[in-house]
Amino acid sequence: MPPKSAVEPPEGFEIRREAPLGRHPILDVFPGLDRLATAARQVPDPAARARLHRETEVEIVDGDVWMYVAPREVPRWARARWKPIASPDRDCIVIGHEHLTESPSLTLFLDIFHELCHVLQRQAGRELFAEGLSYVERTTEIDAYQFVVDEARLLRVPDEVLRDYLLVEWIDETEFKQLLDAVGVPRGP
Predict the structure, then answer these.
(1) pLDDT digits (tens, 9 = 90+) for 2-16
(2) Is 86 helix (H, G, I), strand (E, B) or coil?
(3) Structural domain count, the chain
(4) Is residue 7 part of a domain?
(5) Which of 14, 55, 107, 168 is most buried (CB neighbours < 10 A)?
């Protein structure tokens, strides 16, 4: 789990950490998310933004899970090593219960907007789970991370905290450096 940061998400970002396991409207778990300046930068058109937040759900699950957009169907390449929840009919962001209840607010803020980027990408026809590309070679990942890094910079999040946030357990050191370079975060000491 990323270290706690003295930097907080913007005022108005709320988390219902006590939300039970199961599927919920996104605004039931993150009330007011749609009214944040970050949401307006992500989707400038008010009607489109309202539709995104009205139609996107979150599913809180037990287990060692961060956040991901539920695929419409489980990709064939993933079946042997990853057992995601599929959501064929609705846009759904899967969130691990432990992540929701224990992660710092800033991490959850960055994560939920990262995943909303993926929802928008998929709605635009982009492939989120491209076979044959590493995680940090997927333009969908780079674009989503770039959005949240830019938002973090508006909050004056230090580079050290951004490096901790970007150091995800499913990439190696070479990929981590590649990700830092791609989103403009200095590698540090």
Answers:
(1) 444 468 999 999 999
(2) coil
(3) 1
(4) no
(5) 107
